[in-house]
Amino acid sequence: MMPWVDEYSETFVRFIGVVDIAGGLGLLLPSLTRTMPRLTVLAAAACVLLQVLAIGFHAMRGEFDVLPLNAVYIALALIVLWGRGRKAPNRHARIVLMPRHQARPNTSKRKPDHENL
Fold first, then answer.
1. Contact 25, 47 (CB under 8 A)
2. Any idea where the domains of the chain sit in the sequence?
């Protein structure tokens, strides 16, 4: 257990845990489900911010032994941020904010059914 946990409220500690779990799910689920994969990029950026804040928190408390682990987390999140943002973005994802018939333009030569009448 981390030494700072006993010094802060249970609500604060649980909030940090929920934020960590949400960040992990945000990194995995959008790309795995191919639904709104840009959320993976946002989650990676949020994880970088969270770890930068964690470095500041631990440095203020003199807990320098955990800073290398935070640096590793930042590096991993930056790799995901770069990979999903620039190198290999998931462009074949479904758009779930619009109905399926509006998500893709009709590129076929066939006339729509209502014009064949």
1. no
2. 3-115
Closest by CA position to 23, among listed 77, 96, 90: 77
Residue among 71, 42, 43, 41 nearest 56 (CA) = 71
Q: Residue 64: which of 74, 54, 73 has the closest Cα?
A: 54
What is the average pLDDT score of the chain? 81
pLDDT at 41 over 60: yes
- Does the pTM surpass 0.85? The reply is no
Q: Which amino acid would we find at residue 98?
A: M
Q: What is the pLDDT of residues 3-12, one digit of tens each?
A: 788 888 999 9
Angle made by CA atoms 36, 19, 49, in degrees to the nearest 5 = 80
Q: N- to C-terminal Cα distance for the chain?
A: 71
In the structure encoding, which two tokens stand for residue 60, read together? 């203020």
